[in-house]
Amino acid sequence: MATVDIVDRSAMIQKMKSLLDISSKETAIVMVDIHRGHLDPSVATMPAADEDCERVIKATERLLRGARAVGIHVVHVVTVQRLISGLGAEGRACPFWAKLSEMAESDRWVPGRKSTIDLHNIEGSNLTEIIPALYDKQGNDYVVNNKKRLNCFTNTDLEHLLRILGVKTVVLTGINTNTCVLNTAFSALDRDFAVVVISDCVASMYGEDLHVFALQNIARCIGWVLTVDEFLEKVQEGIARQAVVAGA
Fold this sequence. Notes:
Blueprint: H1 10-19, E1 27-32, H2 36-39, H3 50-69, E2 73-79, E3 83-84, E4 88-89, H4 95-101, E5 142-147, H5 158-164, E6 169-175, H6 177-190, E7 194-203, H7 208-221, E8 224-226, H8 228-247
Parallel strand pairs: 1-2, 1-6, 2-5, 6-7, 7-8
Antiparallel strand pairs: 3-4
Helix pairs in contact: 3-8, 6-7
């Protein structure tokens, strides 16, 4: 396969960042599969790299502290698979995933690390648990726990919840950058949400190349890719702007 250079669209991306307005009252952080099945190396069936697990969890903790302090909604979307008689895990209904599962583990999704749809996030297993440091145990977070495929909107009530909450901007974090995060970003765009992806808070178990590809694709075609610091700065700018309007 021929190699290609990444087209430099940094000027366009920076201009778009300058045009982004964030209203904390109309924003939700959607946590894509921030669960032990991806981010707890001790038990994960489809783990991100150890260093990515640590990076994503620490950065997301910081993001959530700033977001919750100003009333931004937090929604966790979690993959949960049933075991189906005669089939196994629900993911085996997908032909591509089923064929991958028939291959030797070394040839599956992630070279050098375990990766199996058959055991991944089975209903009732500890794999489906949200990373404790990222979950508000006081009950202020929302949970959508029937994700079955890559897109967080497919056959879930995520859109229904976001509309009830009055959300106009969807901020995505989680695993994997090039699959579930990217698919959800496309779907949010199609539903006329403003889309933001926090680069510190996403990772791909498939490799750094696909992580970079996904962030480039999002920033150039779908929405805004911001760091935690950039996002929190935008939030404060929005609060200051609203205060000026209210005092006018």
